[in-house]
Amino acid sequence: MEIARSAAAVGCSKEHQRIYADWFAIADPGACSRNLRRSHHQRPQIEGLGGDGRRFADSPVAASPAVPADGDGRVTGADATKFFAMSGLSRADLKQVWAIADSKRQGYLGFGEFAAAMQLVSLAQAGNEITQDSLKREDLSSFDPPVMKGLDELLARSMAIVNVVRPQENGTPQVQAPSTNSWFSSKSAKKIQTPLTAVTSVIDGLKRLYIEKLKPLEVAYRFNDFASPLLTNSDFDAKPMVMLLGQYSTGKTTFIKHLLKSNFPGAHIGPEPTTDRFVVVMSGSDERTVPGNTIAVQADMPFNGLTTFGGAFLSKFECSQMPHPLLDHITFVDTPGVLSGEKQRTQRSYDFTGVTSWFAAKCDVILLLFDPHKLDISDEFKRVISSLRGNEDKIRVVLNKADQVDTQQLMRVYGALMWSLGKVLNTPEVMRVYIGSFNDKPVNESAVGPIGKELFEKEQEDLLADLKDIPKKACDRRVNEFVKRARAAKIHAYIIGQLKKEMPAMMGKAKAQQRLIDNLQDEFAKVQREYHLPAGDFPDLEHFKQVLAGYSIDKFEKMKPKMVQAVDDMLAHDIPDLLKNFSNPYQ
Predict the structure, then answer these.
(1) Where would I find the EH domain in this sequence (predicted)?
(2) Torsions phi, psi of 242, nearest 5?
(3) Which structural domains are found in the chain, ordered by start?
């Protein structure tokens, strides 16, 4: 399955890559001067192909010569407007070039996107119309690099400076660009305010805003204990995730195998409940499985929060890594089959619903898989679906193995599925259901007939198109989840502040706390009326009660209006300004 095409994948020759590497150093301000301090034997690393966290050395264009960079390898919109102006193209053409090159809407171009942009400029200069399919042209490699007026002089000037300074480079200490990793250090967060100049992407901006404005509020009112663990650097940089949920033998593991067109380490497929653990399928340099305890403590992985579910869960959690182009852009989460019938009475050794809810908050898409012969929604499955509250926009329903029934039966199965979902999903909207048989076997045409086969093919194309859009929407999804978290943290602070205010100063604190917990619904209503908040944004009442019972309300911080005002300002001004600064520079 093709998700994104890098510069190398669309026919960018090594010779052109070398040319674009020199151009990239010019377009990336400060790149030349900083690279003078690097050894010419050292191969600098830049973030490749859309800022997905891979280093340039691991990207498909790694065979090209070393690419100069200023530490982050990013050409922002402001930089691009100056450099792209040398092409002589109209503003409308350059707007389209940027929109296609920055398809993930991150607000900058890495080397891969920059090379793709140069190829698009070549096409436009040759009189071709620029469209989303332009990078798929088979004759793309036959086009020469674009004509950039005045670029030769800039290149000659930069080379002259390099030749003058290079003899001293071995004695000059290297200067590193600011690392966003340090923003998550408590000491540095208190002492150093990250300058705006260090922010070169939407994600970097969100990291800065989280550390400076949202995290202090979360820490003060223990939001991480009630809702979600504190965010780390890896949470922002993680690839988009797709989680598959369903009863056993509905084809979850087979579905992932079908998309990858190959097996993955640790995959077990069978009619019995074969997947007995949560398996994260992600990109890696070689094929291997990593135990849950190991993967949960790795700082560069977004799974640190899973340690709160204890060793019983981590023993049922593992990471499957393998090199695959699809996994460079998407991570899959395979889950154990949801239990039904008598099996539900056997309690799992960990909080299955809680783990599912944790992954649901992190994932970009949640696929609910059903089998025509397993349409009943068990009590555990109902609890799991209920735990997805607040993530309904991520849910996609897949009626898998649909070629096991004929057309008439399929019609009845579809109706029964919609009826069952209507009882569980408390929403008036009808869920989109994809119908098909998502495996490597040909469709059973004898059962569904030619019309059914055509239907399955169209449904599969629609689902794959939906999945292809995930990387492009990943940055927008990060912003959406960040705003959702900020609003939840603000409401949490209001609730804790209200409870703290109701506590007596001296005597009877234990009785007062118990009274507040028993009448928590009334306290929620007071907060809602006082601050004019929507009822749907409040946390789950029973869960909040359960966690609150383990704390002494009197120990919480009093309401701090300045902290809440900082979050309000962030939502009202900082985030809109951030999105505006890193939108298409030709808008």
Answers:
(1) 66-135
(2) -120, 120
(3) 1-34+72-158 (1.10.238.10), 202-231+479-581 (1.10.268.20), 233-441 (3.40.50.300)
Angle between helices 202-209 and 445-502 (to 10 degrees): 30
The crossing angle, in degrees rounded to 10, of helices 541-548 and 520-531 is 110
How confident is residue 16, by pLDDT bands cut at 50, 70 and 90? confident
Number of residues assigned to the chain: 587
Band (pLDDT 50/70/90 cuts) for residue 447 is low
Give φ, ψ of 349 to 5 degrees. -80, 5
Confidence at residue 160, expressed as pLDDT on a 0 to 100 scale: 65
Give the chain's largest Cα–Cα span: 84
- The amino acid at residue 341 is G
Establish how many alpha carbons lie within 13 A of residue 60's alpha carbon, considering only the half-sphere containing its beta carbon.
19
Note the pLDDT tens digit of each residue in 328-369.
889 999 998 887 654 554 567 888 888 999 999 899 999 998
> Taken in order 305, 308, 310, 316, is the CA torsion positive or negative?
negative
> Average of pLDDT values for 93-119?
88
Say which amino acid occupies 3. I
As a whole number of angstroms, the distance between CA 557 and CA 559 comes to 6
Cβ-proximal residues to 424 (8 Å cutoff; 6+ apart), any chain: 377, 382, 385, 386
Find the mean pLDDT for residues 63-91.
70
Q: What is the pLDDT of residue 334?
A: 92
Rounded CA separation 575/521 (Å): 32
> Contact 350/316 with Cβ under 8 angstroms?
yes
Nearest Cα to 61, choosing from 77, 43, 79?
Answer: 43
In b/e form, how buried is each residue of 543-571, taking b as 16+ CB within 10 angstroms?
ebeeebeeeebeebeebeeebbebbeebb
Residue 155: pLDDT band with limits 50, 70, 90: confident
> Torsion angle, CA of 219/222/225/231, rounded to 10 degrees?
-20
3-state DSSP percent of the chain in helix, strand and coil, to 5: 55, 10, 40
Cα 168 from chain centroid (whole Å): 43
How many beta carbons lie within 10 A of that of residue 304, not counting itself? 18
Which H or E run contains 365?
strand 365-370
Tokens of 548: 């609150």
The answer to whether residue 247 scores a pLDDT higher than 60 is: yes
Amino acid identity of residue 415, one-letter, is G
395/367 Cα distance (integer angstroms): 6
| DSSP codes joined into one string, 485-510 | HHHHHHHHHHHHHHHHHHS-SSS-HH
Q: What pLDDT does residue 496 have?
A: 93
pLDDT value at 67 more than 80: no
Spell out a b/e string for 127-139, using b for 16 or more CB atoms within 10 Å of the CB, else e. eeebeeebbebee
pLDDT band at 44 (very low <50, low <70, confident <90, very high): very low
Residue 428: both structure tokens together: 């008036």
Please write the tens of the pLDDT for every residue from 505-522.
888 888 998 999 999 999
Contact criterion met (CB below 8 Å) for 278 and 336: yes
Is residue 457 helix, strand or coil?
helix
